[in-house]
Fold:
Amino acid sequence: MQLTNQTGDQHEVPTEGGNGNKYLLPFILITSLFFLWGMAHGLDGILIPHLKKACQLNNRQSTLIDTAIFFAYFVMAIPAGIIIKKIGYKNSIITGLLVFAAGAFLFIPAANTRTYELFLFALFIIGCGLTILETSANPYAAILGPPESSSSRLNLAASFNGLAAMLGPVLGGIFILSGVNYTREQMAEMSDTTRVSYLLEEASTVKVPYIILGSVLILVAIIFYFMHLPSMKSKPTENEVKPGFFSVLKYKHLSWAVVAQFFYVGAQVCVTSFFVRIAQKEAGLDEKTAAYYLGIYGFLFMMGRFSGTFLLKFIKDYILLSIYCVISAFLCLVAIYGSGIYIIYALGGIGFFMSIMFPTIFSLGLVGLKSNTETGSSWLVMSIVGGAILPYAMGTLIDIKHDDIQSGYIIPLFCFIIILYFSVFGRRVKIVKQ
Structure:
């Protein structure tokens, strides 16, 4: 039996197991990966204000948390594509889970020594694991079923990424954030011993959550090891010339998808990275309540994924993407110029409306790539480096503006304008002859 995906490529699939229901269990397992890497990213929004306090950082330094984890996507995207071709989807997934777990366990020595550089290294290792997982799972979910429903299938799987985006901040707020905050003056009045003890205690709260996360990852890797997954090996179509890694960008819609994905991930990370701080500073919320609201943001993100999956049955994916971009840009203006709790409402709305963007851009970028799907997937995953660069730019702008966090949200506003251009013009499939 052959399965032809949205890209037009053919993939060999085992014929045993009867009808299409044999894809259900593999799809469930793949969906669990979306939840796990969503949990990692969901905790980032808690780690940034937490380590800013525990390691005494400024805004720019705190965004290096994003830089560490998302720079790994850039570094590992090409190796991840090579790994998939060499050892297949299943073994690549297991490898990604184990690397992810290793990074989680590195939080133990980082917390024990309160070494920010070691935290960043641990997050970089986590990012390497996530890159392998995402490079494997996104195209696998896209081709694991009828080609006409690949966008809906990706959005359904990504909905559980949204579930993790809701649970991550809530659990992080409970188990990581202490709710104890001292002003700069109060810290200066402490004795050296008291201050060091307080900061070490703050840093140590990350250990238990990341030990549990690492243990779960190892358990899931074991389950994947013993489970049978359908083989999805690409077969080039007749007379197809397969371009190299860079020449695949002659697919102009893929090139624009890479640009759009860069700005989308940058926008998403910018919104969440400073959510807790803007909730404290502009809406007057305490640390734990702000984390709770970040969890509500995650809930809206999840609901956006589920409702988006439903709407995609009736609305063209690029049309829905365009509508959501316009609304998200408007909500950014509210976040920039609004005041009080309305800023938090606007950011929650952004979470809802940008929820479908990643899987939709990913799916649109892979259209017509045929046997170049893995290479295109590597480019789209590599573009996630936007999450490393744009939050750092936002943190720098906020520091320049003397901790005016609202002004920083002009960066995600610009990002949504770029994505809108892709959804209207850039996503059109066209190959430029060389």
User: Anything to note?
Assistant: The chain has a mean pLDDT of 85.
